[in-house]
User: Which sequence fits this backbone?
């Protein structure tokens, strides 16, 4: 029991993390992950996604008994009824969740105990882009600002290094800052 | 009543949409939107976001009485307890929700009645990137595949054109394919 407890820091089981890294070194084929989302339109801007299985660590994951169900819509000013957050807000949530868990993982690996990790994200866009009124504006956010507040048992400089390392290792930070090729097929009828 | 009904197609009030476009042409300052997400770490990879107000259409929106609360975590194989979808899955959800609502809006503007819009998104990554084991792999998805199934009262060619138009107008498709500059500040202590 004392051994188990000693390997858990910030809620991260560092023994499990290092064991996984060793396994990936020996069997690189375990490193392939395929995540999936199924989405269905409901009405107007309102849609619903089911998020269930994925491929990873050499097989189809079976740890989730049921699918997660999440919706997306728009507020009235963007022609919806506030049934759920809008897609751009979900992109900010994805970025926040990923940067935060990467900060926590990096801190655990560096033996830093964290007391608080919170952040506010702000994304700004000009709707003349997405509406097609003025092509000098892009459709999406012109920029995103992320403001973290972090407290932990390490000097400020070490906490800043952890944030910098998380920026260079976060899955979603990479995708949002660098972009990803997206192929779209449509079966129509 | 009959006039109101006539302007609604696919759950989109096209009269409201065209009225909004006219207003944006006359007062471009209404086009600025600022969306925000506040995220707080809970434990391990588990965090919680609150999504409430935003700036848009010339003022602070007040249409949401309460904040939306959404969480993010990881499955056990990625050191969490399946408390919620993971951040990369939320990015796929954001992309799905945005492309779907853009398809629906474009179809409404083109007087096409849709019966079904559903899609499956798949994102593939090699975890040797994000774990730092091999820098020849990126952290995020190498690519994303989106497979739509669309049924509506228009020829297949017109439905395909609607999908192409949605790709060129979707807020999140733009961000995911082209990337967004992200500034990160940290208040540490």
Assistant:
């Amino acid at each position: 029991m004392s051994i188990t407890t000693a390997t858990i820091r910030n809620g991260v089981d560092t023994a499990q993390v290092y064991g996984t890294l060793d396994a990936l070194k020996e069997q690189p084929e375990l490193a392939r992950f395929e995540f999936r989302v199924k989405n269905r339109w409901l009405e107007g801007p309102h849609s619903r996604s089911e998020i269930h299985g994925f491929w990873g660590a050499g097989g189809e994951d079976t740890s989730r008994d049921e699918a997660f169900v999440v919706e997306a819509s728009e507020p009235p000013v963007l022609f919806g009824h506030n049934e759920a957050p809008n897609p751009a807000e979900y992109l900010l949530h994805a970025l926040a969740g990923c940067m935060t868990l990467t900060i926590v993982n990096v801190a655990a690996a560096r033996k830093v105990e964290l007391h608080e990790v919170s952040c506010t994200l702000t994304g700004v866009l000009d709707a003349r882009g997405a509406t097609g009124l003025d092509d000098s504006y892009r459709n999406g956010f012109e920029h995103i600002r992320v403001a973290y507040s972090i407290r932990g048992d390490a000097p400020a400089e070490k906490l800043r290094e952890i944030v910098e390392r998380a920026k260079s290792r976060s899955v979603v930070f990479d995708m949002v800052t660098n972009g990803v090729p997206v192929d779209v097929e449509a079966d129509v009828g």
In short: The mean pLDDT of chain B is 96. The helical segments of chain B are 2-7, 14-26, 87-109, 156-169, 171-178. The radius of gyration of chain B is 20 Å.
